[in-house]
Amino acid sequence: xxxxxxxxxxxxxxxxxxxxxxxxxxxxxxxxxxxxxxxxxxxxxxxxxxxxxxxxxxxxxxxxxxxxxxxxxxxxxxxxxxxxxxxxxxxxxxxxxxxxxxxxxxxxxxxxxxx
Length: 115
Description:
- This protein is mainly alpha-helical.
- It is about 70% helix and about 0% strand.
- It is built from five helices and no strands.
- The chain has helices at about 15-20, 25-45, 55-70, 70-85, 90-110.
- The longest helix is centred in the first third of the chain and has 22 residues, at about 25-45.
- The chain starts with 14 loop residues before the first helix and ends with a helix.
- Residues about 1-10 have low confidence and may be disordered.
């Protein structure tokens, strides 16, 4: 029998985690989601250029993603970070990260556009 995942798979954003991190403050949740979406977009713009500091940028994105409950983004960022530090092929990791960020940003847009 397979083990359950360590992190529940509740979609691109773990809303229960986000709520705990924001101490139940809905306006703070919305603020950090908007900040993450903007930061993730900027980091991805840089990451696709594969600059020398890819591992550091991926590490930054990983931490921000974990803070808001975007665990798929965090896992993909960690994969990219590790690939660069190990000097292995990072193309698949970068593609996975790009997909995870797009999915998270789409979910954030839906959350922020709710009334």
